[in-house]
Amino acid sequence: MTPTMARPGGRSAKVTAAVHRAVEELLTDGGSVTVPRVAARAGVNATSVYRRWGDVAALLADTALLRFGTSGDVPDTGTLRGDLRAWGAALAEQAARPAELALLRAAVTAGPADPGAPDGAESARSACLAGRNAQAEALLAAAAARGEDTPTATRVLDHLVAPVYFRALFGLPAPSVDVLVDRLLAQAASSPPG
Amino acid sequence: MTPTMARPGGRSAKVTAAVHRAVEELLTDGGSVTVPRVAARAGVNATSVYRRWGDVAALLADTALLRFGTSGDVPDTGTLRGDLRAWGAALAEQAARPAELALLRAAVTAGPADPGAPDGAESARSACLAGRNAQAEALLAAAAARGEDTPTATRVLDHLVAPVYFRALFGLPAPSVDVLVDRLLAQAASSPPG
Q1: What does the pLDDT read at residue B21?
Q2: A chain contacts of residue B126, beta-carbon cutoff 8 Å
């Protein structure tokens, strides 16, 4: 889930890190992201960026993969309701930041095989989805181990992650995550699985 | 909601229609969409396409606006459950077609002011959202007029449109729309508004 770790280290890894940082800084500043601007900000030659990533779309997708493709740590509040609320709030907060919203958009647009992506790398889109699914599964497994009733991970994606990402992608205000979680848990207790 | 109608008619309108058709055909064929390929398929000069739309991203966004920006007709089955099921199924079917999924992705990525867009045109993204919201409002108003209890339009977006579009955008199989609608109506009857 952290593809840069598998790439050659040393100078190449430093260039990769500097380029990703430059992409995020340009997105945060709200400026347009072009290969020459990224290269200038990262202090590398534009030709190196073109050679490594192909074009700006592939570079954005690769940066998105690093940002959204990790399944990282999940909250541990002691209850499923608390964990889902904390996790959902963190997803909404991340998706509200301009740089990360731009990367989420890049992930959604990215093709399954981005030019210049390392061999065997998942696309940013499927990595983002796999990351969220793994986090949902981890929260649900912890809740099940505590003896709590749990919805399916699919239901968590459909009724918590989907509204958070849909609203971010379409430019709507973030939803009330607490209300979404309450609905999800009320549903899970009363209606058929799916 | 049909911006081409407001553009100059005659030759210009014919070129616009031919270019949009060429974009959709290329997307359906699964080939890459470039300005020269669109121009060749549409039988127009590439320079005309560049002058009118700026670049391929703006052209995709404009085509997406036409495809997703309309609020069009909504089903009238006599019950809110039936209307939401038919409408949700149509949205899922549309989002599953390769050309329309590519346009939905273009809409999500499009900026609020696409270069080359006609003056005052809404972006494809906000037009898509406004179109879905107007359709939800129309279904809900018809149901309210029949005396049915109704959820809010926001809730329809969060729990029906969001999972349908989220799954399409992230490459998951379409959800069971009937199950989503059943949950939405069960929720609306039992939990706090929002």
Answers
A1: 93
A2: 170-171
Show the tokens assigned to A63: 């940066």
**What are the residues whose beta carbons fall under 8 Å from the beta carbon of A181, sequence distance 6 or more?**
A81, A84, A85, A88, A160
SS3 B186: helix
Is B133 within 8 Å of chain A by CB? no
Residue contact B187–A192, C-beta within 8 A: no
| Nearest-angstrom CA–CA distance, A28 and A67 | 14
Instruction: Enter the pTM of the model.
Output: 0.85
Number of helices (H), then strands (E), in chain A: 10, 0
Q: Positive or negative CA dihedral for A184, B177, B94, A129?
A: positive
Structure tokens at A37: 């601007």
Does residue B116 or residue B74 have the better pLDDT? B74
Name the CATH code of domain B8-54 (choices 3.20.20.70, 1.10.10.60, 3.40.50.300, 1.10.10.10).
Answer: 1.10.10.60
**CA of A10 to nearest chain B CA: how many angstroms apart?**
34
Amino acid sitting at position A68: F
CA-to-CA dists, residue B124 to A29, B1, B27, B112, angstroms: 24, 10, 17, 8
- Over residues B22-74, the pLDDT tens digits come to 999 998 887 788 999 999 999 999 999 999 988 888 888 888 888 888 777 89
Chain B closest-CA separation from residue A176 CA (Å): 8
Tell me which residue in B105, B112, B163 faces A162 most closely, judged by beta carbons: B163
